[in-house]
Write a structure and sequence with these properties.
This protein is of the alpha+beta class and 910 residues long. Helix content is 50%, strand content 14%. The chain folds into five domains: 145 residues, Calcium-transporting ATPase, cytoplasmic transduction domain A (Distorted Sandwich), CATH 2.70.150; 45 residues; 249 residues, Calcium-transporting ATPase, transmembrane domain (Up-down Bundle); 146 residues, Rossmann fold (3-Layer(aba) Sandwich), CATH 3.40.50; 172 residues, Calcium-transporting ATPase, cytoplasmic domain N. The chain is built from 31 helices and 22 strands.
């Protein structure tokens, strides 16, 4: 049966359609007017939080409510000044939390804007790449395989177009599409037809999938094959998907595993705090008989125990971590992937564009009768006045390689072929801009070649041009064993030089019904064309950095084995274990694959479905897999990988949507940068959690033990609120801004099962906090004992203890900024937020000590110089304790990491 004869990539020609369809797209000015009138082409965002809603959420949090309850108790006690001052501090802390959360929201919103899908649209007569949100009714868009349709559109030119509409119709199979209206007389465009620039026809209801709907593409559906040119007829909430999206706008997104873990920890801490606070309230009431002060003591303990910083810390770290990655041209589509990147043990990368520059050049042409070498030609050009023309015997290779490529190429290989054609065939009759495309046969898993059928003005016969893998081309040409051997020897010689080799063939066919398979044409072999795609300059060092970090780099490519080995050697990938081809992989069972997996680093002639099998095999072996991909068929493997990485520049929309990470700059260094940031985020999160645990232990102790000892309350709500001015910024700003430790990329990846709140983090935080609590209780007890006859002994003891607590908190931040350097060397790498926190804390402490109104609020007495010196000395002791615990655990951690490294090395080939 004769297929639709359309001009697949000649988008200047339109299949004959209704006169309501415009010939060209809109102008930029007209598009702006329509955008202002009709609004952006966007779906409703789920639970969009305004600044007012964000403030309301903060006010309703338990910490804020507890502080309000404390203020109410002060009012009942008649301490109006204390109540008002406390509420003033409450709103200061609330403001800080609001700024931090709003910053996190802004960073996530900026990421969402970066992740917005894009569309190819015709504006002012040119094809440009714009944000899908900027599309308007009347725009003409171009769709190709792997694109997600950006808006409801009427098809006006198609070539083998099929679209997956299962998200709307539930139909499992892709739907073959056709043009809106076809000319009954001819399959070619009508150049004489008059067209008018009018409003497009309204889109039919999405719920009705009639025959007419086959001439429409609906927003959100996926192009599975072919190309098309279409007229936008509905955008945003007016589209089929938009009407569905309105009903989903109120659904909250699911929490990540790390967020769920943090939520559980906060829940358990809150329940424990409530139980302790209740017990303390009852105990204090029984011993003192003062129920109001008992309630105040209980509320104070509840505030001290509640780790309300943790959810804020987590959301801010992940949000800002993703934002920092975006500044490095690495877009994070799934926030949870930021921290998981640090656990990657295997990077499965493709060759073209990731390890290589993705800029190809035709280097050699070969036939049985002649050969061309670009290097030799360049040498000849440098020594002679005129460049020798390309031999006549080689014209056919380049002529039909150009015809077998898209007229408007976007693939680097086809761009190189087109450029070589313009340069080497200029002035000859072998460039055919006036030929019409009749049909094209795309690549298929069982036939790695593509053929294009052309009609020339002066021939009745159809001309077929084919290019592809050399073994596929010789198969199309039905070569005998001797001919195949001669061709493959030449292929091997070129591939050993790191060149990508394609075969080229041609055929003729009488006008009429075309065969279903390109194999049914009678092809004649024309020759080989070899292209060079050099390795990026920064790749060898990046590979060495990965190996030093205990990360295996595995190359997956569709190239010839010899080409793959040559590129791997240049990049620094292990080639000693040889190459596994796609055909070998197909014959392996799971047991043999598991045995070969640990030693193999190069996989060539790999099919997309085999990538999925490799990903699962690596995961079954206990590896954490990051994998790059760019095609439609890569999506399952990207989805299955622990961290799917899509190519932003050359990747398809379906690959980007399946991936967790998108490299906006398609190179290996970006992937290594993502891993480095992933390790930084996870490491700094653990440091912040250690600090949170350590700082809460003495606060809880000073809230409980003095009451049990019959002493007055050491800490009151205002004191804990003051500490919040240090704790919140320290966790969310100081630790987040801390650079990655210099040796972090020389350590093996962390186990995938390692949690944020593991034994190491809990014990380090607990022991650092326990030591500080002991020092504070000692200071408080000794001060009360020494000043037993002084009427201000309780105020002086509280003052001295609080000064030590503030200084020790700053020391605790300083020690935990780096777990690999001592206190003497850490000072060289202090980040700016830490300096700001220290300065602000000391200024605030000075005001609390020497401004009479604040001194009364805090129940302090003005300290003497001796007390200040004593406080600094005790804070110095706390610093030594923190460093001792850190070094004790660092030794344990180094031993564990050494064991991990030895175990990792043992699992690899010698």
């Amino acid at each position: 049966m004769m297929r639709d004869a359309t001009q697949a990539d000649d988008f200047t020609a339109i299949a004959a359609v209704d006169t309501a369809i415009p010939v060209t797209g809109l102008t930029e000015a007209e598009a702006r007017l329509r955008l202002a009138k009709g609004g952006a082409n966007e779906m409703p965002e789920p639970l969009q939080r305004s600044m007012l809603r964000l403030a309301a959420e903060l006010i309703s949090e338990p910490m804020f409510l507890l502080l309000l309850a404390c203020g109410a108790v002060y009012m009942v006690l008649g301490d109006w000044q204390e109540a008002l001052m406390l509420l003033g501090f409450v709103f200061i802390v609330l403001g800080i939390s609001f700024v931090q959360r709003h910053r996190s929201e802004q960073s996530i919103r900026a990421l969402r804007d970066l992740a917005s899908p894009r569309a190819m649209a015709e504006r002012d007569g040119k094809l440009i790449n714009i944000l899908a949100s900027e599309l308007v009714v009347g725009d003409i868009i171009v769709l190709s395989e792997g694109d997600r349709v950006p808006a409801d559109a009427q098809l006006i030119s198609v070539s083998n177009l099929s679209i997956d509409e299962s998200m709307l119709s539930g139909e499992a199979l892709p739907v073959m599409k056709q043009c809106a209206v076809r000319n009954a007389q001819t399959s070619q465009p009508s150049s004489q037809q008059s067209v008018q620039q009018t409003e497009p026809e309204s889109v039919p209801e999405s719920a009705q999938y009639s025959d007419k709907s086959r001439s429409y593409a609906y927003a959100g559906t996926m192009v599975t094959s072919g190309t098309a040119r279409a007229l936008v007829v509905a955008t945003g909430t007016q589209s089929a998907l938009g009407r569905i999206g309105l009903s989903l706008a109120g659904i909250a997104p699911a929490l990540t595993p790390v967020q769920q873990e943090t939520g559980r920890v906060v829940k358990y801490a809150a329940m424990t705090g409530l139980a302790l606070a209740t017990a303390l309230t009852i105990l204090y009431w029984i011993t003192s008989g003062d129920w109001l002060h008992s309630v105040l003591a209980g509320l104070t303990l509840a505030i001290a125990v509640l780790p309300e910083e943790l959810p804020l810390v987590l959301s801010l770290f992940l949000g800002l971590g993703a934002w920092r990655l975006a500044r490095e041209q690495v877009l994070t589509r799934q926030i949870s992937a930021v921290e998981l990147l640090g656990a990657a043990t295997v990077l499965c990368v493709d060759k073209t564009g990731t390890l290589t520059t993705n800029h190809m050049t035709v280097m050699r042409l070969w036939t049985f009768a002649a050969a061309y070498d670009a290097n030799q030609a360049a040498t000849q050009a440098a020594t002679q006045a005129a460049i020798a023309p390309l031999q006549e015997e080689l014209h056919g290779i380049l002529e039909y390689a150009v015809l077998a490529s898209h007229r408007r190429p976007f693939d680097p290989m086809e761009l190189a072929i087109a450029e070589a054609g313009r340069r080497l065939l200029l002035g000859t009759e072998h460039l055919h801009s006036d030929w019409d495309l009749v049909e094209d046969y795309p690549l298929a898993p069982d036939m790695l070649a593509m053929s294009r059928v052309w009609q020339s003005p002066d021939h009745r016969e159809l001309m077929i041009a084919s290019k592809g893998a050399p073994e596929a081309i010789v198969d199309l040409c039905h070569f005998d064993a001797a001919q195949v051997d001669a061709v493959m020897r030449q292929v091997l010689a070129m591939a050993r030089d790191g060149l990508r080799v394609l075969g080229v063939a041609c055929a003729t066919f009488p006008s009429g019904e075309l065969p279903d398979k390109q194999h049914d044409f009678h092809f004649s072999f024309l020759g080989l064309i070899a292209l060079e795609d050099p390795v990026r300059a920064d790749v060898p060092q990046a590979i060495r950095d990965c190996q030093a970090a205990g990360i295996r780099v595995v190359m997956l490519t569709g190239d010839h084995p010899a080409t793959a080995v040559s590129i791997a050697k240049q990049a620094g990938i292990n080639t000693e274990s040889g190459v596994i081809s796609g055909s070998e992989l197909a014959d392996m069972d799971q047991e043999i694959l598991a045995l070969r997996l640990a030693a193999s680093h190069i996989y060539c002639r790999v099919q997309p479905e085999q990538k999925l099998r490799l990903v699962r095999a690596f995961q079954a072996a206990g590896e954490v897999v990051a994998m790059t991909g760019d095609g439609v068929n890569d999506a399952p493997a990207l989805k299955a990988a622990d961290i799917g990485v899509a190519m932003g520049a050359r990747g398809t929309e379906v690959a980007r949507e399946a991936a967790a990470i998108v490299l906006l700059r398609d190179d290996f260094s970006s992937l290594l940068t993502a891993v480095r940031y992933g390790r930084r985020v996870f490491a700094n999160l653990r440091k912040a959690i250690v600090f949170v645990i350590a700082v809460h232990v003495p606060i809880v102790g000073l809230s409980i033990i003095p009451v049990m000892m019959g002493w007055p309350m050491v800490l009151m709500p205002v004191h804990i609120l003051f500490l919040q001015l240090i704790i919140d910024p320290a966790c969310s700003i100081v630790f987040e801004a801390q650079p990655l430790d210099t040796d972090a990329m020389k350590q093996p990846p962390r186990p995938k099962t390692q949690k944020l709140f593991d034994r190491f983090v809990l014990t380090r935080g607990f022991w650092q906090g326990l030591g500080l609590m002991g020092l504070l209780l000692l200071v408080y007890g000794v001060t009360r004992s020494v000043l037993s006859i002084d009427v201000q002994r309780d105020q002086l003891a509280r003052t001295l203890s609080f000064i030590v607590l503030v200084l020790a908190n700053l020391a605790l931040i300083y020690v935990n900024l780096s777990w690999s350097r001592g206190v003497g060397t850490s000072i060289k790498r202090l980040n700016f937020p830490f300096v700001c926190i220290v300065t602000a804390s000391l200024v605030a402490l000075g005001l609390a000590l020497y401004v009479p109104a604040l001194t009364r609020l805090f129940a302090f007495a003005e300290p003497t110089p001796v007390m200040l010196l004593t406080a600094m000395a005790v804070a110095g002791l706390s610093l030594m304790w923190f460093e001792f615990i850190k070094n004790l655990h660092v030794d344990y951690l180094v031993d564990s990491q050494q064991g991990m490294r030895e175990g990792y090395s043992d699992s690899k080939p010698a």
